Amino acid sequence: MKIQLLIGIRDEDYVEHLSQVLLERYSDLFEVSVCSSEERLGELSGRTSFEVALLSPSMAQQARLEGIRLPLLLWDGATPVEGALEQLHRVRQYQRISALVGTILEEYAQVSGGGRREGENRARITAVWGPAGGTGKTTVALAYGARLAAEGRRVVYLNLEHFSSVPACFPMGGKSISTAFEKLDSDLGLLMQSIRQQDGASGLSYFCCPDNYDDMNLLTPQDLKRLAEACGQGADEVVLDLPAVCDQRVRELLDCAGQIYVVLDGSRIGWSKWKQFRDQNNVYGQLLPKLVLVANKGCRPEEVRGERTVSLPYVKSDDPVTVYKTLSASSSFQA
User: Fold this and answer.
1) Which residues, 6+ apart, have CB-to-CB distance to 172 below 8 Å?
2) How far is CA 63 from CA 68, 107, 134, in A?
3) Per-residue pLDDT tens over the stretch 257-308
4) Which pLDDT value is given to residue 113?
5) Based on the domain organization, do 75 and 132 belong to the same domain?
6) Are the C-beta atoms of 265 and 299 separated by less than 8 Å?
7) Given CB 3.0 to 4.6 Å as the disulfide criterion, which of 89, 145, 187, 195 pairs with 109?
């Protein structure tokens, strides 16, 4: 379901530019109606129900706001705002349209409540996991996502490690994912879309790391599952980068994933831990149809028991961005 959005402002050049960008880049989110006449706005807002309205101060005075679920004041930063209009949430008119859209989605997620679009998500979830740390799990997750993004798919990378690797790979200029942790009762699909960033080089969408690692630790298994599924709204693929543990929270995410990449390198410790998981954990048999063993850093898989395998080369670099981009272009990487 698209959000019914009304744009009411007399600046026709601005309205034309804004509506054109929304049509070209956000047509999956919004059904846009435009009005530049105060008289027509009063009629339109009276007979049609809108979920969100972006209104200049002069237009807001003429609109019938009771029929609009979320009226937002599109403010130029100079026009005086008085009376009842002071109660409206202000949105800066002159800013990047992507930031404007993010504000709309974040505000609407608060008033629409949870579940408005639950069930609409059709994105596949791929979990990237391993029983041992240091095997290159994050670069494999990013390489897989970048490979799909290069093929034109909409990919969201969600890092759920205890200490995030995101700052080492992407700019941190946006809102923290902690914003979503604090608003789990909102429309999570919209909220996650409002705060996610996009890397121009790889095409991957991602989230800025938590404000504090304890923010992640407070989440329940069900909270994490809802977050993962919410990331799929407006995406084709969600790539989960999971910590090297197998507690109830990770098991919940492995269970909801459509496929699982298990990343191992040539270390005896890593393969020993994998064999223990395989032989001792009762979920192995349930997960087997979804498992793909990734023999990373040029190693060879050991004692494969029916799992599919992917072999990745060793990339000699200390830069994780260089590593994942090289792996994403490797002919041996099966995305």
Assistant:
1) 166, 208, 209
2) 9, 20, 58
3) 999 999 999 899 999 999 999 999 888 999 999 999 999 999 988 778 888 9
4) 66
5) no
6) yes
7) 187
Task: Write down which residue in 90, 112, 134 finishes a domain.
Answer: 112
> From CA 141, how far away is CA 294, in angstroms rounded?
11
The verdict on residue 117 lying in a domain is no
HSE (CB half, 13 Å, CA atoms) of 105?
25
* Residue 240's CATH number: 3.40.50.300
User: Is it the case that residue 115 has pLDDT exceeding 70?
Assistant: no
User: Which residue type, as a one-letter code, is found at position 287?
Assistant: L
Residue 213, domain member (yes or no): yes
- Check whether residue 133 and residue 262 sit in a common domain: yes
The DSSP string of 59-83 is HHTTS-GGGEEEEEEEE-SSS---G
Q: How many residues does the chain have?
A: 335
Average pLDDT, the chain: 89
DSSP of 266-298: S-HHHHHHHHHHHHH-TTHHHHGGGEEEEE-TT
**Among 95-99, 118-122, 306-310, 320-324, which range has the highest average pLDDT?**
320-324
- Token pair listed for 177: 């994912």
- What would the two tokens of residue 253 be? 């995410």
